[in-house]
Structures are given as structure tokens and as C-alpha cells.
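FORM 12-B: Structure-to-Sequence Request
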């Protein structure tokens, strides 16, 4: 068994696609209309185009807002992305205007940082454990 797909709820799929591709550097894999306004919209790492997909899922369900608000209020990220160098990625993303809620910190065998994805989520970046 392996993880094939995971998702983050987003307020605006078009804005999420822009942020996740133009700022974070993912690439669009699927963009299929679902209903009148929603899309099955996934992105993948350019390094692993056949790897795990991230679904940019519409946040329309009534349970989404209280769930995300509670996590954000407590500073809890909804997802974690692996990077080779957290400090370098932090500087790259800050230069692009990304707002961080946690600067790079060593946490045992990893270094982490947390940013706001502009789509209603906190996302953590981390190095692989040493």
C-alpha cells in the first residue's frame, strides 16, 4: 500500500493553482471540470511526475471552515512538504512574498518552517530526518 493522492482544501482553485505552481514550483497533473464551477485539480512534484498527487480541493463543505480555522489558530499545518534545504527554500519563498508563521527551526533530526499558502492553509516545509 502507498499514498497515491492527498488533498488540501482551498478557497479558490484558480488562485491555489497559481500559488502551488508559480510560487511553490509544483506542476499541474489533472484539471477536469466537476459540476458547474469545481475542478478535479491536482499538482505533483516536477521531480516525481508519477508520484503522489496533491488535490486542490474546493473548500465548500460546511465542516471545512471550522476545521481549518481551528488548525490555523493553533498554528498547526495541514500538510508537510519535503525540501532539501529549509533555510534556502525559506529565503526563496520570502523573496516571492510568501508569509511565514514559523521561521526555520531545528526540531530534533529535522529543520522545519511554516507558511501561509494564501488559500486558507498553513503548510510546513521540512528536511528529511538526518
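FORM 12-B RESPONSE
SEQUENCE OUT:
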Amino acid at each position: 500500500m502507498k499514498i497515491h493522492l492527498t488533498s488540501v482544501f482551498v478557497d479558490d482553485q484558480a488562485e491555489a493553482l497559481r500559488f502551488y505552481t508559480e510560487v511553490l514550483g509544483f506542476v499541474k497533473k489533472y484539471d477536469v471540470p466537476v459540476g458547474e464551477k469545481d475542478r478535479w485539480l491536482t499538482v505533483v512534484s516536477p521531480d516525481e511526475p508519477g508520484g503522489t498527487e496533491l488535490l486542490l480541493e474546493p473548500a465548500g463543505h460546511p465542516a471545512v471552515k471550522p476545521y481549518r480555522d481551528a488548525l490555523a489558530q493553533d498554528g498547526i499545518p495541514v500538510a508537510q512538504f519535503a525540501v532539501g534545504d529549509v533555510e534556502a527554500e525559506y529565503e526563496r519563498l520570502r523573496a516571492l512574498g510568501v508569509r511565514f508563521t514559523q521561521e526555520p527551526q531545528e526540531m530534533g533530526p529535522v529543520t522545519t518552517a511554516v507558511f501561509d499558502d494564501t488559500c486558507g492553509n498553513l503548510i510546513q516545509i521540512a528536511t528529511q530526518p538526518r
